[in-house]
Amino acid sequence: MEKDTDRLGLLLHDATRAVRKRFEQRTSHLGLSTAQWRLLAQLSREPRATQARLADLLDIEPISVSRLIDRMEQGGWVRREADPCDRRARLVAPTDKTKAAYATIKTIADEVYDEALEGIPADRRRELVAMLRTIVTNLNDAEAEPRVPCIKANG
Predict the structure, then answer these.
(1) Which residues, in sequence order, are bridge partners of residue 114?
(2) In terms of DSSP H, where are the helices of 3-155?
(3) Model confidence pTM above 0.85
(4) For residues 25 and 67, what is the distance between their CA atoms, to the nearest angstrom?
(5) Domains plus CATH for the chain?
(6) CA dist., res. 59 & res. 31, Å (int)
(7) Domain HTH marR-type: where (predicted)?
(8) Residues 94-116: pLDDT tens digits?
(9) pLDDT-flagged residues of the chain (< 70)
(10) What secondary structure does DSSP assign to 118-135, as a single string?
(11) Cα–Cα distances in Å, from 133 out to 99, 110, 140, 142?
């Protein structure tokens, strides 16, 4: 007998893929890849992050993040800054171009989510989001905790 959760992984994957595909269709005119959109979305949550942190958040290899950031820096989407807490590290920060585009991204994402959730009452939508947050919380490991900001003392 099949349990209700037997297809959970496939359903989550299929739903994510369908949303991503629709989002890509609606944003193709902006000329950014999915990896670039994901990086910009992470920078909207955490406006200054090291390349290592971004690699972890995006679940891709550090060298791939480095190349991705190189391309985005050349396009004026991000800039690298010195990390005040670690002279060896560089922080990646969004530019004004990214901040302006993010409003467009957010609007398109909201439209895609509304389309995806069509026919589901508002209270059930809230339940779904709460349940997905619980899944993420249950499965996230301690390494995924946000970086504690460095506060430099004066003098």
Answers:
(1) none
(2) 8-27, 34-45, 51-58, 62-74, 96-116, 122-139
(3) no
(4) 24
(5) 25-144 (1.10.10.10)
(6) 22
(7) 5-137
(8) 999 988 888 888 899 999 999 99
(9) 1-2, 141-155
(10) TTS-HHHHHHHHHHHHHH
(11) 26, 18, 10, 16
